Each structure stands twice: as C-alpha cells, then as structure tokens.
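Researcher: I'm comparing several assemblies side by side, and this is the next one on my list. It has 726 residues spread over two chains. Same procedure as the others: predict the full complex and return the structure.
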Amino acid sequence: MRQKRMLALVLALAMMFSLTACSGGGDGETTAAGGTEAAGETTAAAGGETQAAAEGEEGSAQEGAFNIGVYQWMSGNAASIGEEMKVAFEIAVEDMGGTVNGEEVNFIYYDTTNNPETAVTAAQYLIGQNVDAVIGSFQSSDVVAALPYLEDAGIVNVFMGTSGSLVTDDQKYSVRGAFNADYSIPQFVATMQELQYENVAVFYGQDEASIANWGAMEPALEEAGLNVVAVETGSESDTDYSAQCLKIVDSNPDVVYVVCSGAGVNFVKQLREYGYNGIVMNKDEWMTSHVDQIGEANSQYVMGCVAYTTYKSIEAAEEAGARPEVITFLEKFQEKTGTLPTVGITYRCYDSCYLMLEAAKRAGTNHDADAIIEAMLGINDISLCMGPVDFTQGDREPCHEFMRTIYVDEGSKNFDSWLTNGGYDAYKSATGREK
Amino acid sequence: MLKSLIIVGLIMGSIYGLIGLGYSVIYRASGIMNLAQGELITLSAFLGYTFFGVCGLPYGVALILTVVIMFVLGVMIQKGLVSRYQKRGVTGVYMLLITFGLSRVINGGEALIFGSNAKRFPSIFNVSTVNIMGAHLQPERIMCLFLALISMLLVHLFMTRTKTGIGMQACAMHSKAAEACGIDVVKSNGLTWGLASVVAAMCGMMLGPIYGVTLMLGANLSQMGFASSVAGGMGNIYGAMVGGIIIGLIESLVGGYVNSTWKSMIAYLILFLILAVRPTGLFNEQAVRDV
C-alpha cells in the first residue's frame, strides 16, 4: 500500500512537472499580459496593469471584466506559439485603449495539448466559467471539436483555424478571425497556369485543414486541366517521408503543392534531400520558424498565397511590401519582446482578438452574445494584419485578399516583384529546370 | 524506384533497429521495459545539437560528449530512481509506469531547457546528397545504416564476450544467484542503463541531422523502434535489428507501391502476424521476466 502511495506521488509529481514545463516553454511563469501561469490553464489580466492571479482562482472569470476564454495548443512543440499569442493579445488590448466598454479584458487560457478531445474539455470548462466570448484554436481539428459546444451555449467565438469547412450555414455565434485557406486556391492554380506548369504533385497532411484544402484543390486542378502526377499523404507522427518523397521525385512534377499543417516543413526538407529542387507551393505562410528548422537552402523557392507571412526584420518586411498594419504590429511586437513573430499564427491571434474587442465595442456591451455577433458581422471598414476586413460579403469570412510570396535569398519576397525582376529566369538557371 | 525504396527501407530499418536495441538491452539485462527510451533519444539529440550546432564543436567531439553525459545519466537514473523502487519490490506494471513518468519528466525538462521550437541540427558532411544506385540520399542516412550495424555488433560482443556483459545477463536471470557468484549486481544494473543510454545517444546524434530536433523526435520514432524489438524477439540484440529492417522495408515498399497512408497500418498488421506465428518474436526470445 505504502509502495503504491509512493508510486502515485512520484507519478503525480512527474506529470505536474512535465505539464508545467511544457505549458510555459522558456519563461512561462509570467504571461505576456502580466498574469501568472499554472499547469494547463492560465489567466492573464491584459490592459497594462500587472496582476498576480490569486491562489486557487487562476483561470476564473472575474466580476466586472470582459472575460474571454482562449483554447489553443500552447504546450510542447507549441509552447512558443502560446507565448507569442499572449503578446499579440496584449497588443490588441492596448490598441483598443486598454479597456472595452469600460471593462478590463480578462483572458482565461486552456491548453488543448494538440488533442481535439481536450478541445472539447476546454470548451466545456470555458462554458462553465461563464466567459463572455471565446477565441478559438489555430488548429482546425480543435475548432471542429469545440465549436458545437460553444454554439449550443450561445457564446460568441472567433476561431483561427483556416480550414474551409469550418464555416457552415447553421452557425450563429462563430466566425473566423483568420483567412479561409480555400480562398487562396484560385490564385495557386492561376500561378501554375501562369508559369505554364502541366504536372503537379501533391503532399497533404492528415489533419482537418489539410484534408479539407486538398478536397477543394483537387477539382480546381482538374478544372484547370492540370495533371496530378502524384498524390501522397502523411502525418506529423510519421517523421520520415522517404517513400512519399521518392514517389513524388519519380513522377517528375513541374511543381509540388504541399498542404500539411504539422509535417509540411519536415516533408519539404526531405523532398529537397531526395533531389527535388523546383518550386514548392505551400498552403500556409513559410514562417521564420520553418527556416530555422530546415535551413535556408531547403527553404528556397517555397511559394505561398497568403494573408501574411513572417519576416526576419522590419526592414525585410518593408522591402517585401508587407501591409502597413503588419509593419505596425511588428514594431509593437518587437518593442515588447525584442524579437519578431516566428509564426504566422501570431498575426491570427492579434486579428482575432482585435475583431472580438472591436465587435464588443461596436455592440456597446461585453455580455450580450447576440449584440456582439451582429456587430461583428457588420464590420467592413477596418484593416488588420490580414488586410481589409469585410464580413458583409455574405460568407461570414473576414479576409478576401491574398498576396503571393516566395522564399528566396534568405527572406520572403513579393512573388510578383520577383517575377518582374527576372527571379524566375534566375531560378531556372540556378536549378537547371525548364520550368 | 524499387532500388531506392529498398535502400531507404534498409536505412529506416536500421534506425528502428537501433532504437529497438535500446529497449532490448535493458529488457535483456534487467527485465524492465523502459518507456523513457524515446525521450533519452530526444535528449541526446538536443545535447548533440547544443555541442555541435551551438558551441561549434566538431561532430566527433559532440558525439563523445553526448555519449559520456548520457552514460552518466543512465547510471544515475538506475541508481537514483529505478533501484530505489526495485529495492522496495516494485516490479512489472508499476515499473512500467515509473519509466513512463520518467519520460514525461525528461520531456518537460527538455522543454524548459531547450524551448519548444524545432532546432536545425547542422549537416555533418559538406555534401547534401550522395547518389547510390540512382537514389539521392543524405550522407547522414548512409552513416546511420553503418553506425547502427556497428553498434549492434559491439553491443552483442559486449553482452556475450565480456565478463561484465555476461554478468549483466546473469543479474537479469537471477540477481541473488548472480550475487552469490560474486557479480556486483548494483554495478551491473547501473551499467545496463548506462549502455542503453549510450545507444539512445547514438540514435539522437544520428537522427538529429536527418529530421531536426523536436520535442517529439524520440517519441515518434520509438514507437516503431519498440515494435522492432518485439518483432525480433524482445531482448534479442540481433532480433531488434532484423525486426527493424523488416518493418522499415515494409513501410518503404507499402508507401512506395501501395499507399503511404497505409504503411504504418500494414507494418503493424504484419507485426501481429509475426507474433501470431511466433509469439516470442522472430528469434524466439523467451521473456526474461514477465512485465
């Protein structure tokens, strides 16, 4: 009995240590907004004042505050995303003047641990906390799992997943705070046609967003008369994509379209190592963290049609023609952290938070879900990192403008400028490819 | 493409086999299933990245430092944690849970010390790819194949041809009888964990340059490594390697000619088949101690 008690104690300590470490990453004790962090669930009082959450009350809604629940993967491999998210939220709150409708903004965090089942638990926890609103996960699979519960509870929620299938007609309280990845498909296809590509190879992930995107891309390629010479798939847990790479290289494609949230980066590295040196069209932005992970050489010629991307410096962002809103956000982010965002998800976090606060402000209340969502769906006159926001086009989507980027010469560049300035000829010369 | 797939399958198999070797060493010598083996691999990769990628030490020096640190850590784990519970009579599923808990502690520690961002382990060689029979391969992958085979041979020779190795096996069979024969059981158990950690260090130093270093590196690959050691016969040194190569080849060929979605599923189905025909694995290794 004593033995079992000791064992239970050791295991409990082990789990606690592990979770605490994972949820915070480097300096997880203090959140960007000045709150404190506990295992799995955190609270942060944004708005400038540093507050230490009281013992036993962490993660709780506060009286007289605008309580926003946040469910997102922010531990393990995503710990740094969680840290950047909190900084983005803090900037959004400050941009709104520190308070909304006279109330401080109180964030209640729940780590979904890369597990949709935990996202359901998170939604139930946040509902139980009587939060006024929810900002949802950047992982579409989390959103799919949690969204029905939030809808049933009548809680306004802005989610950050980019899967096209997330927005449905029967939703009343849910909107996207990011871009719909399917909207970039026509631009990808047009680019393939512009570059006179004929043979396309595809690698898609097993996550919700990737499957949905490939489901939309496949008919678009067919309609455009492009040949799909190889279709391969893989998940993050596979780690090794040798067989997929070999098949794709063997099919000799003009371009490889990659849509894979987690595994895409490692796949691109391996694809390069197996001899493919052509253009990779990547569904998501090619982030600074991706370059750090697989190196400059492997990141060359990764192209995207995106709402935003990450940059190594503000000067590089300006040079690449980043939106003024992105530049402003980067300046504020750098002022707070001394660095720049390493993932595009940080822009999504800022935009989503700003949208939520703006909608509440326009509604004149933080506690009436119907009023907030009505105000949200009327927003069409502001511009955020994603570009001009327009919810009034009848699709419940805020973002309708995409820009083409390509990673080349140690940075993300504007694809159109790159083409105009002879970049494509230089690419053909450097790679020895005809296309 | 067949030649390329076979070469890739052999390389992947050798990686799985080497990972499986770590499981087998501890199981063979102490009867414990160490679920922290994957995390020891991840930790080794992080250490190697720090020495080689951050400090700029030569790869060979980084490898030696990592091996030494991991050996000491392995001994410390055995002495500071495992042996304490063993003395209290903790066995079987409880010991399994302790190693699982240990894996979570190591993972949490890695996140605290190294952060959660993926790290790029610099290439060891100046050339990015080499062409072997038409297959473009990273030279690190080729190195993996050879180092895995050499490691397997060295571990086998150590376990079967040296007094210490034979003593380690004797301790696993019957610790009291071994002690009566003059074998230092405490030292022997410590060496076993040190040796398994050295194998993990070799894995981490080889996998880092190929896949980069992430918190999930060891956990993801160790599933197949564990399956390899079971398929070959848990505790059998050569079995782990043969099991790994079988699984690597199945994955590669299924991924190449059938469907990449099914490669793991089919590999596991064949593993079931192997265990149905030979419940103690291909090499018919009898369980040292039922866990």
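Model: For your comparison table: Chain B has one domain: 2-89+99-104+127-277.
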